[in-house]
Amino acid sequence: MITVVHGSDIHFGSPHDPAAAETFLEATRAIDPDLIVISGDLTQRAKVSEFKEARAYLDRFPEVPLVVTPGNHDVPLYRVFERIFSPFRNYQEYIRSELDTVTRIPGMTVVSLNSAAPRRAIVNGRIDRKQLDLARAAFDAAPPGDLKAVVAHHHLAPAPDYEGDNPLPDARRILDAFESMGVELIMGGHLHRAYIGNSLDVYPGEDRDRGIVVVQSGTTTSRRGRARERAKTTFNLIRIREEAIEVVHHMHFSAVGGFAPFSGHVYPRGARRYFEPGSEFRIRASREGARMGGADE
Predict the structure, then answer these.
(1) Cα–Cα distance, 221 to 14 (Å, whole number)
(2) Alpha-carbon distance 257 to 249, whole Å?
(3) What is the per-residue pLDDT for 275?
(4) Does the pLDDT of residue 175 top 90, yes or no?
(5) Using CB atoms within 10 A of its CB, is residue 119 exposed (0-12), middle (13-18) or buried (19+)?
(6) Per DSSP, which regions of 79-217 are E strands?
(7) Which of 54, 64, 136, 194 lies at a CB distance of 3.0 to 4.6 Å from 218, suitable for a disulfide?
(8) Residues with Cβ within 8 Å of residue 74, at least 6 apart in sequence
(9) How many Å apart are CA 172 and CA 249, to the nearest integer?
(10) What does the pLDDT read at residue 205?
(11) Tell me, what's the pLDDT at 81?
(12) At what angle do helices 171-181 and 129-140 cross, to 10 degrees?
């Protein structure tokens, strides 16, 4: 089994919530994951001071592989000269020099694609053909049986309560490309509201039996939650088994003084495409002492 902690939109700067940040750190340590994913918007205004704080925070997580990607807030908005000529300078100096990365752990290959496009689409982002070629090459080189996953800040599928929301441009073409590569899981953020579902929920796609599991995290450590997660902080716990992908959505509750499981989702993996009639899958809560009646989907 592979255990992944997925948070997003930590927004160091004025919206950052230090108390939520500490409880998220505690929860991650208790889970003891194999991989940590932070899917963009590490800062609010891409300032050096904010990136320094974000770097110091990331360094406190367990010493396991960490996947990060820039978000639209990680490039300067109002410092126009910098946004045009050196938009990722601070991110690359303090967080990671590479903007597109490939991370491999036993049983899983993760391609992180920088969807921030500061010169042409600072809000909605872009993923271009060159990045898709990089992903295809990485997945073609993955060991047989690896779960193939993509991380990008901007969303490829809108949450159901975001009427009129515009996902990443060419989302359908990109999803079809990922399906052809055998991608099973996409992780992202940007909405400040979690969405856990399947690409078939919003787009039939070319492979209408399987689709791709889409896991969007809300804002994990800021006060900028939106829609049903207004003023809420959330993260996702993902467990990858041979037969299934399990996702437990966690939300911060004052009653428990931290994060607790809020909903659960189970999806069959790869060629299985469905669970055998009569089979049972139970979501396991991650927080010690927490109880949750998981909803199997």
Answers:
(1) 11
(2) 17
(3) 80
(4) yes
(5) exposed
(6) 101-105, 108-112, 147-151, 185-188, 195-198, 213-216
(7) 194
(8) 40, 41, 42, 43, 46, 88, 90, 91, 95, 116
(9) 25
(10) 65
(11) 62
(12) 20
Residue with tokens 């492979």, as numbered in its chain: 207
Task: Report the alpha-carbon distance of residue 286 to residue 238 in Å, rounded.
Answer: 10
Tell me the chain's radius of gyration from C-alpha atoms: 18
Confidence of residue 297 (pLDDT cuts 50, 70, 90): very low
Q: Give me the residue label for tokens 């991380």.
A: 151
Yes or no: say if 267 and 283 are a contact pair by the CB < 8 Å rule: no
CA distances from 176 to 67, 108, 171, 270 (A): 24, 21, 9, 15
Sequence letter at residue 166: N
Q: What is the DSSP letter of 80?
A: H
Report if residue 287 sits inside a domain.
no
Separation CA 261–CA 285 (nearest Å): 6
* Residue positions counted in the chain: 297
Residue 250 structure tokens = 């966690």
Q: Sheet harboring 108-112: ordered strands across?
A: 101-105, 108-112, 147-151, 185-188, 213-216, 195-198
pLDDT, tens digit, for every residue of 271-289? Answer: 777 787 777 777 766 544 3
Lowest mean pLDDT among 17-21, 78-82, 128-132: 78-82
Per the structure, how many domains does the chain have?
A: 1
Flag whether 208 is in a domain: yes
The answer to whether position 286 is within a domain reads no
Q: Between the CA of residue 62 and those of 31, 65, 161, 253, 285, what are the distances in Å?
A: 10, 9, 34, 23, 20
Assign residue 91 the CATH number of its domain.
Answer: 3.60.21.10
Q: Residue 153: which domain range?
A: 2-272
CA angle (123 as vertex; 86, 113 as ends), nearest 5: 65
